[in-house]
Structures are given as C-alpha cells and as structure tokens.
C-alpha cells in the first residue's frame, strides 16, 4: 500500500507544482510584472517547488538523508537521465553562452554545495549564503541575458483568466505541494524500513527521479519541438536552483546533517557527471545521440554502484 500512496503523493506533488506556476504567473501578469521577471522568479521557483517541499518536510521529520538525497539525486538524474533521453529524441545543440554561463555557474554551484557539506553539516549561515547567491545569480542572468518575453497568445491566455481563479490555482497549488510532499516522504521512509534500504538510497533514486519529472517532461517536449536550447537551459538552471534555493531555504528552516555516505559516493558522482558533461557538450557543440547513450549508461552505472 505504501507504493500506492507514494505514487499518489508524487502525482499530487506534480499537480500542485503546475497549479502554483499557473496561478502565480497569472497573478503576476495581472499586476503588470514583466514576462522576464515572471519567468525568472515565479515559474523558476514553481518548477523547483516539489523538491523544495520534499526537502523541507524531510528535514523537519529528522530525515536529512532524504532532504540531501533528493537534491543530489535530482542533479544526477537531470544531467544523465533527462539529458540522455532528450538527446535520443533529438541531438541537443550547445551554444557558447551555455558553456560560458550556464555550465560554469552549475559547476561552481555544485562545488560550493560539496564544500559546504564537507564538515557533515549545512547550518543556517550556510543556508543564508546560498539564498543570497540565489538572488545574485538571478539578478546577473536577468541583466546579462535580458528579458524572456511571452508570446501574444500566452499573454492573452493569462489576461483572460479572472483574478479569483488565479488565486484559487495558487492556493490549490500550495495545498497540493504540502499534501504531496507529506505522502511522498512518509511512504518513502516506510518503504526504506520495509526493504531494509537506507533513506539515502530512497532519496537519490525514487524521490529524486520523481521530483525530476517536470524537468524530464519539459526537456523531452523541447527536444520533440527541436528547441533543445530550452532543454539545456532547463536542466542546468534546475541544478543551480536545486542547490541555491532548496538546500539554502531548507537549511534556514532547519539545519541539515550530511552523512559520510553522501560525501564518499553521491557527491563524487554528481561532480564527476557534471565535469563529464563538458567534453560531451564541447564535442562539435552538441550532445549527439551517442552522447545521450553515454549519459544514460553513466546513470545506470551509478545505480549499479549504489544498489
């Protein structure tokens, strides 16, 4: 029965995230906020909200391994599983901007995460540093890249929605995230106890892949539409957001303990996969289908070693 409730929790979590993004975007549009500001704040936060709620819930329940595993596992699956599948759908074109900005920031963020976790503890002050960096990075990208405008069709769709429906969507989204995260974490713990599997393993596999489904769906759809720059930005941006916002905010709510298993295994895989991504991207400035296969095999190798 735990598996049923785990699946229900995941479904409610993903639905809650979508409702939150739709409602908040509509409200922001009604208030006259720029499309670029909506995309870089409301929507970016909304797509990372499932991971955030899961990590905060896990930390408050005293299961820090699920909180950390959720982020580390999501970053690993984003780079290997999501990009691998997307590249099989359609080769991903890499721009120089992605290499210089997106990848560089992602690598630095991952190294910072590892450095802060080395003492086995991420406290309030470290959480504050990550959150401040989150604002700084978003401000930099907003100034450097410029605004990402909505199409006229999207603007029209937002403006046609009455404000009360947007508020209802927002509240339902928040409620869905809360209920979904509770179900996901609680039943994930029960499954771990039932099978004698550690909470760390549950966090970096089932929960991490589950909360990465929005990124997978977005990237695959972008691949089908041959808009692979969106897929690449989605993944690298998500990995940065996972560390800066999720770990940062979670540590502010409740300090996180990091077990040695993460430091000796999962963090090294996360950093190794991030570094491996560079030559794959740099080769002819695209991730070919063969590159996608390499990424997927790397993910399977990781699962083999941890399981």
Which helices and strands appear, and what pairs or packs with what?
Blueprint: H1 2-30, H2 35-60, H3 64-89, E1 92-93, H4 96-117, E2 121-122, H5 124-145, H6 152-160, H7 163-195, H8 199-211, H9 213-224, H10 228-253, E3 256-257, H11 260-282, E4 286-287, H12 289-306
Antiparallel strand pairs: 1-4, 2-3
Helix pairs in contact: 1-2, 1-7, 2-3, 2-7, 2-10, 3-8, 3-9, 3-10, 3-11, 3-12, 4-10, 4-11, 5-10, 7-8, 9-10, 11-12
Structure description:
- The protein has a single domain (2-306), classed as NCX, central ion-binding region (A middle domain of Talin 1), CATH 1.20.1420.
- Helices cover 84% and strands 3% of the residues.
- It has helices at 2-30, 35-60, 64-89, 96-117, 124-145, 152-160, 163-195, 199-211, 213-224, 228-253, 260-282, 289-306; strands at 92-93, 121-122, 256-257, 286-287.
- It has a two-stranded antiparallel sheet.
- The longest helix is centred in the middle third of the chain and has 33 residues, at 163-195.
SS class: mainly alpha
- How many individual domains? 1
The largest beta-sheet arranges its strands as 1-4
What's the architecture in CATH terms? Up-down Bundle
Low-confidence stretches: none
CATH superfamily: NCX, central ion-binding region
* Number of helical regions: 12
Shape verdict = globular
Give the rounded overall mean pLDDT.
82
Strand content: under 5%
CATH fold category name: A middle domain of Talin 1
Q: Quickly name the level 1 CATH class.
A: Mainly Alpha
The largest pleated sheet is described as: 2 strands, antiparallel
**Tally of strands:** 4
| Helix content percent band | over 70%
Order of helices and strands: HHHEHEHHHHHHEHEH
Task: Give the termini separation.
Answer: 23 Å
Tell me the radius of gyration: 19 Å
């Amino acid at each position: 029965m735990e598996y049923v409730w785990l699946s229900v929790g995941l479904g409610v979590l993903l639905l809650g995230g979508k409702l939150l993004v739709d409602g908040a975007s509509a409200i922001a549009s009604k208030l006259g906020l720029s499309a670029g500001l909506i995309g870089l704040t409301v929507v970016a936060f909304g797509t990372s909200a499932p991971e955030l709620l899961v990590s905060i819930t896990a930390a408050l329940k005293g299961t820090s391994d699920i909180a950390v595993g959720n982020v580390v596992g999501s970053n690993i699956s984003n780079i290997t599983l999501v990009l691998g599948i997307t590249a099989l759908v359609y080769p991903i074109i890499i721009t120089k901007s992605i290499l210089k900005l997106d990848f560089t920031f992602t690598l630095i963020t991952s190294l910072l995460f590892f450095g802060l976790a080395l003492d086995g503890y991420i406290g309030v002050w470290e959480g504050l540093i990550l959150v401040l960096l989150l604002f700084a990075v978003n401000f930099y990208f907003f100034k450097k890249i410029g605004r990402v405008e909505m199409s006229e069709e999207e603007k029209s769709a937002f403006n046609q929605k009455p404000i009360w429906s947007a508020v209802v969507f927002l509240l339902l989204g928040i409620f869905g995230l809360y209920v979904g995260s509770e179900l996901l974490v609680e039943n994930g713990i029960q499954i771990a106890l039932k099978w004698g599997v550690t909470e760390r393993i549950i966090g970096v596999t089932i929960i991490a892949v589950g909360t990465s489904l929005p990124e997978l769906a977005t990237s695959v759809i972008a691949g089908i539409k041959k808009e692979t720059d969106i897929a690449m930005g989605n993944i690298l941006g998500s990995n940065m957001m996972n560390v800066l916002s999720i770990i940062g905010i979670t540590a502010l709510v409740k300090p996180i303990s990091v077990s040695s298993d993460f430091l000796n295994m999962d963090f090294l895989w996360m950093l190794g996969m991030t570094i491996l991504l560079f030559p794959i991207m740099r080769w002819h400035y695209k991730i070919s289908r063969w590159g996608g296969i390499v990424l997927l095999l790397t993910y399977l190798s990781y699962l083999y070693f941890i399981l």
